[in-house]
What we know:
By secondary structure, the chain is mainly α. It has two domains: 1-239, no CATH class; 296-500, no CATH class. Helices cover 84% and strands 0% of the residues. The protein has helices at residues 4-34, 37-73, 77-107, 109-112, 120-149, 154-177, 184-207, 220-254, 257-293, 297-334, 342-349, 352-355, 358-367, 372-395, 400-427, 435-438, 440-456, 464-486, 489-505. It starts with a helix and ends with a helix.
Amino acid sequence: MRDKKFYKNLMFSLISFGVSIIQSVWFVPFIMKNMGAEPYGYIAVVMNFINVSTIISVAITSMSSRYISIELQKRDYKEANQYFNSIISAVIIIGVVLAIIFTIIICNITQLMNVSYIYKSQVQVLFAIAAISLIISILNTPFLAGLYHTNRLYVMYTFITLNYVFKIIVSIIFLNFGEIKLWNMAFGGVIIDVASIIYYLSNYRRYMPNLVISASDSKIKYIITVLKSGIWVSITKAGAVLLTTISTYISNLFVSAMITGIYASIMQLQSLIAVLVVAIVSCFVPQMYKNFAENKNIELIEYTKQSIRFLSIPLGLLSGGIIVYGKYFMILWLGESFGNYEKLIILIMIYLPFSLTAEMLNQVNITIDKIKIPAIVTVIMGCVNIFMTYFLIKVLNMGIYGIALSQGIINGIRGFIFFPLYTSYEFKISKKTFYPAMLSCPLVSLITIFTCLIIETLGTPNTWLKLIANAVVVAFIVLSVVSKIVLSKDERNSAMQLLKRKKSKC
């Protein structure tokens, strides 16, 4: 973890995460104030539709960087070039197919979701803009391999950060010069998406100088090779949708559009943590690819354990803090009525320390191309989640709490039991290998919860100033304690050296 590029990637990923928090914290009350909870529920459902549609594309996009990057690491530029061009052909075909599917969905939107007539056209425009953004992101995929190969993920995070910023700017512009619409924020994002694809097309040879776009190098056998692995990632994505994303849609169908808007706003807390996890995990991927390409399995295992411990600190700190202070945040953010959903906030957050560290193991399985069994298990668990959710809502009449409870139980089993056991099996190592590292996150979360409760006794954080002050104090105490428990001496020294370097530059 002493590589300068790693820390630069991490810094930019955290900046992106910070801006995403600002965007989310600003946007939800912005919509609630100007349009209400119901319209926000429509935005959540549409974005979930878009997320579900990635099941089609992820079979190619999820594995493209892996294949291109590993061949570049091996300096087999001929193979890398053929993978590169074959994947370009594949994503273009996928983009055309998705464009056709989205057009059909947009024309029949009222048959697929509950939407008021007055919002129908806005929902359709929102869907169209979100679809364009998705297709552009798919077309960008082959070019991102160069960022993984050269360990320059900060370029990608720069575009992600600008995407968040422009969503805010464009929404404010529309508000000042006309009536706010559901699709305003998405329009801001698509501007940066267009800029990103222009940049990657113009600069990809800076990161992959030995590759060139050439239709003659596109071979069906390379597409098939990627698909053989990627299809299981696609199936995993389908299972993940059944485990998480579909909850908002189920709420729209079986509870109400109003409750869906409330649930979606609270789920932003979980979504922000998920964004952070993805950002941090991505920073470890280049080294994983490198270790695997060089057949350094022992180093890969140790690096994975180290990465899990590293991830455990921010994940445990945030999840533990939100479990205690989440209700105060929601009250200050969206109003007193959200104080009634304290139990829902806890249900949504409490399983994350047990499940999300498994994303690091999931990435390792993708790296070593062992994703078939995880895909099948994820789909099975997703189906169980749907049946359990239906039972809890319809039979036990638990409403939105049934959705959160079912999701927590199933994701906890998948993340904390299945993934560490399966990954250990594939590496042919002890089944206990990853558990000491994975237990770090629940430990950090528990320490954070106790610290928050103690600080809370000194005064209720019922203003933004008090809440921020409490959060800073808790973060300082927890980081001081857990860094000595979770990280090794070398890892702590490495982090301190980084801080000293950054301080000397200021």
